[in-house]
Specification:
about 80 residues
């Protein structure tokens, strides 16, 4: 399996609670393609290493407090 790394820097963010989410729009159609319920394309959320019907992301679970420079790692999940 090939590992790919991408980085993004946000500057001048005010202190507060944030989440990070990512979509690998594999077919470049600008939307999340879903099977019956779960996405067919890669997705990632801060504080999540897996998702499923019983482990669905929401702001409260995915959020983190930002009050100084910080690095966040987000795992891409392919279902």
């Amino acid at each position: 399996m090939k590992h790919i790394k991408a980085e993004c820097t946000f500057s001048h963010l005010p202190k507060g609670n944030y989440t990070v989410n990512i979509l690998h729009d594999e077919n470049n159609n600008g939307k999340i393609d879903k099977g019956l319920i779960l996405p067919k394309e890669g997705i990632g959320f801060s504080n999540f290493t897996s998702i499923g019907l019983t482990n669905r992301p929401n702001f409260k679970k995915a959020s983190f407090e930002f009050n100084q420079n910080k690095s966040i790692k987000v795992k891409m999940i392919y279902l």
